[in-house]
Amino acid sequence: MKREQKTLTNKGFSLVELIIVVAIMAVLIGVLAPQYLRYVEKTRLQRDNTSMSDFANVAKIACTEEDVNTSIPTGGAEFVFDGNGVLQHSGQSALDNEIDKTVLITDVKLTSNTYKGTTPKITVKVDSNGIVSVECDAWINAPGDNPTNKTF
Questions:
Q1: Helices (H) and strands (E) in the chain, counts
Q2: All residues at 6 or more sequence positions from 103 whose CB lies less than 8 Å from its CB, including other chains
Q3: 55, 102, 126, 131: most buried by Cβ count inside 10 Å?
Q4: C-alpha 147: how far from chain center
Q5: 57, 152 contact by CB (below 8 A)
Q6: How confident is the model at residue 48, as a pLDDT?
């Protein structure tokens, strides 16, 4: 009989046990949340850098067309990301049209917080020998780094 009474009164967790579990979970979340946010930002930055690198390759391929190559001015054709991270047309219709056959220029967007507030510029240049170079003036390798120039 005593045995049955003991099992009937011992149902579930006490309030103290539940408070301890909630406190442990709060500490774990407080420690892990900043790490998770840094990981997410690093991933977004890598995706943005990949987008810019892919765009640079598309621009190089577009310049293989002779009419595109000859239409680029000596200073180069510039593509600038606006404050929202959207890439803007260069104004060079032959180059813009050739690039748009592969990827819509306005679909190239920067989503990381690292590039927010910056306006990276991608410049497509053709030298006198017809060699194409593509440069970015605000390349960031990792969150917290200073922007540098990168040639693709």
A1: 4, 4
A2: 54, 55, 58
A3: 55
A4: 14
A5: yes
A6: 95
Which tokens is 19 given?
A: 């408070």
Does residue 99 contact residue 56 with C-beta atoms inside 8 Å? no
Q: Are 94 and 67 in contact (CB under 8 A)?
A: yes
The structure's pTM equals: 0.80
Residue 80 CA, distance from chain mean position = 15
Q: Residue 58: phi, psi to the nearest 5? A: -65, -40
Are 111 and 44 in contact by the 8 Å Cβ rule? The answer is: yes
CA-atom Rg of the chain in angstroms = 27
Percentage of the chain exceeding pLDDT 70? 93
Q: Is 32 helix (H, G, I), strand (E, B) or coil?
A: helix
Using DSSP's 3-state secondary structure scheme, residue 20 falls into helix
Distance from C-alpha of 72 to C-alpha of 94, rounded to nearest angstrom:
9
Beta strand pairing call for 77-80 and 121-126: antiparallel
Query: Side chain identity at 130, as an amino acid letter?
Result: G
Can you tell me whether residue 13 is helix, strand or coil? coil
Report how far apart the first and last C-alpha atoms of the chain are (Å, whole number).
83
